[in-house]
Amino acid sequence: MDKEFRSGFVALIGRPNVGKSTLMNHLIGQKIAITSNKPQTTRDRIQTVYTDKRGQIVFVDTPGMHKAHTGLGEYMMGSVDKAIESVDMLLWLVEPDLHVGPSDREIAERLSSLKLPVILIINKADMVDKARIGEVVKNYSELMEYAAVIPLCALRGTGVDRVLEKIFELLPEGPMYYDEETVTQQPIREIAGEIIREKALRCLSDEVPHGIAVEIEKMREREDGMFDVEAVLVCEKESHKGIVIGKGGQMLKKIGTQARRDIEELTGTRVNLKLWVKVRKDWRDDPVQLKNFGFDKRKLNEGNS
Questions:
Q1: Superfamily the domain 6-170 falls into
Q2: What is the pLDDT of residue 68?
Q3: pTM above the 0.85 mark?
């Protein structure tokens, strides 16, 4: 291995809906993390891997930082805490707002106490002029020092190469943690479930998505390579069940059609997807159900590797 091979773990952090998952997908050149315009789309740490001749970066996408009001919210913030404790570098994403709000000030206060390089990413930079970007940089620079400040557009993927270049510049020499072909260690079953939840988030009205979860009950590959996938969309209220199903089942069909296309792209083969809807009242505050959905606080004690 080249003695200049650099490697390390890099977490993407920030408030909800600032573009963390979108940026990570562009950084690795493949869609792994789901995205939507709804808060709390990302509920857990998602780990992906980028490798080239310069080295290997293990990215850790995190939930948006917010004040927790449910058991799920507490788990999500614990997930962010664990990520911050376990990485070598942070990418802090913000939007080009001239006013630095209290949430970002709290984030800056926490980051400034860490002995980690922080790259400030100003997302959606294409929406404002250079003078505005200059003011944003000035305002955020008053909060703390950064290893670099990079304006970009995560949605279009512009500026991504500059981010990778700066990360490799700052990372120390290190080993290859994963095989160079690895993009994620997230199980395909789990990614499929997240794809279904993404489509539900995008299709449904605002009052439902926070309470949506997905359980993959069956994912089996046939001899001809086709996948059979059976999944349940879980909601918290009976009144939500009808919204998820829709008139004549049209909403559930719409979610299923969009999800099937993405799962087929993920697996590279045809997919037979069947969806059902169940109600589990207030599951986001039920420790047993949270554990069943994989949001077990004991899991946060596990390392990144």
A1: P-loop containing nucleotide triphosphate hydrolases (3.40.50.300)
A2: 65
A3: no
